[in-house]
């Protein structure tokens, strides 16, 4: 009876419980590499971390980074909703 490799037996991934949907359109999929490590690198590459400095009066209004993110998302949504009105020239 062959021995199990202790290293591979103990390795667990967050993707182990993933199930494929019943229908998959492979024309829309993007190749990211082979293996779970490639998937982990792909997911990690999508996360962008930037350090910014807030003005003291603005920093006093926010206690967590999540509050800042929510406020910025709201501003982003408002930009999408509010569109400039084009005026027609009168003849």
What does this structure look like?
- By secondary structure, the protein is an all-alpha fold.
- The protein has a domain at 51-83.
- 42% of the residues lie in helices and 0% in strands.
- It contains 4 helices and no strands.
- It has helices at residues 6-10, 35-46, 56-59, 65-81.
- The mean pLDDT is 78.
Characteristics of this structure?
42% helix, flat, mainly alpha, 91 residues
What does the secondary structure layout of this molecule look like, with pairings?
Layout (H helix, E strand, L loop, with lengths): L5 H5 L24 H12 L9 H4 L5 H17 L10
Helix/strand order: HHHH
Class by SSE composition: mainly alpha
Global geometry: flat
How helix-rich are the residues, as a percent range?
A: 40-55%
Could you give the distance between the termini?
93 Å
Summed over residues and divided by their number, the pLDDT gives a mean of 78
The DSSP helix count reads: 4
In angstroms, what is the radius of gyration? 24 Å
Main sheet: strands, sense, barrel: none
Q: Which stretches of 5+ consecutive residues score pLDDT under 50?
A: none
Give me the count of strands: 0
- The fraction of residues in strands falls at under 5%
Quick description:
With 91 residues, this protein is an all-alpha fold. Helices cover 42% and strands 0% of the residues.
């Amino acid at each position: 009876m062959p021995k199990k490799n202790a290293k591979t037996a103990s390795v667990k991934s967050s993707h182990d419980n993933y199930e494929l949907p019943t229908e998959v359109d492979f024309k829309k999929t993007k190749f990211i590499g082979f293996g779970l490590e490639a998937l982990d690198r792909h997911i990690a590459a999508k996360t962008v971390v930037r350090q910014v400095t807030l003005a003291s009066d603005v920093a006093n209004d926010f206690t967590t980074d999540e509050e800042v993110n929510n406020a910025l998302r709201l501003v982003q949504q408002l930009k999408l909703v509010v569109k400039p009105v084009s005026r027609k020239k009168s003849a």
